[in-house]
Amino acid sequence: MIVARAPLRIPLGGGGTDLQFYSSRFGGFVLSVAIDNYAYVTTLQPSIEKGIRVKARINEYAENLNDIKNELVRASCHASGVTERLQITFSSDLSDGTGMGTSGAYTVCLMQTLSYLKGKLMDKKDLAEAAAHVELDILRRPIGKHDHYMASYGGLKLLRINKDGSVIVEDPPVTKKTLHELKSYLLLFYTGERRESSAVLSAQRELAEKNDGVRVYEYYHRIKDIGMRIHESLIHSDLIHFGELLHEHWETKRCLAGGVSNPRFDKLYQLARNNGALGGKLIGAGGGGLFLLFVPPSEKERVRSTMYQGGLEEVSFSYDWQGATLSNGFYSPRRSS
Fold it and tell me: Which of 99, 150, 290, 303 is the most buried (most CB within 10 A)?
């Protein structure tokens, strides 16, 4: 039995500029931090079953890999060359559809365990690229590489996505004291609504392809600029400005197509602002999932109470500094008779 674990993430600035339709033309800039909510994949090679068994939201078994309906399993197994005698189990602290990068983290875990079965240990960059290859190139999902890199690396990272798709990973010069203080201002809430990011992102990509996407690109230019200023605010330990920029990001992103926000979320955000929050965002593509709010510590209880009354559930978190990890204590290579 092999167990892989990979962290989910909170994009702090520039989120979405890694999307292929944008980064391939203008380059991307994403500042993000991994958190201690995780995705897990357990891989086992059974003694008597030669087929593929998947334990996920929908459980299934097939003698032939091509008959497996779970496209992530099917694509990852083909990419890794492990195509039979497998039992794969998915689980996570936060389910997919919450905007936290669960699908990317699952893919990182899956590629890590399958590669180990082939006798290959990948470094963090190769692991991120292998996972991104599955989702972007094989499955053609309308996403970027942000989730895969954060799940693989962990920590606080600045990702510079080049037009050719290559990614430069940097450690921002932000002090531990600043990161600790930043954490004291942040609150995370589950809205109770899930959504598939592909629907939101596909709508934005389709709009970008019309009339050369001028309007969509303008919004993403602003998001990138705000992300760069958020990066600078953390370097200079200017947390109040960080909160103000988070609000500017909210006002910009909600103008994008595809149902990024809705009347309920707009109302909840305004209530949070009325009770002391300086800024906030729906994490990920939007349309559901989790709210991140920036709240001065003295106002936290008021905001918590307001969000509870609105039906939201708080999600506790800390930072993750390990990235993807692998536990193989129970695994021994299968011997042929």
Answer: 150
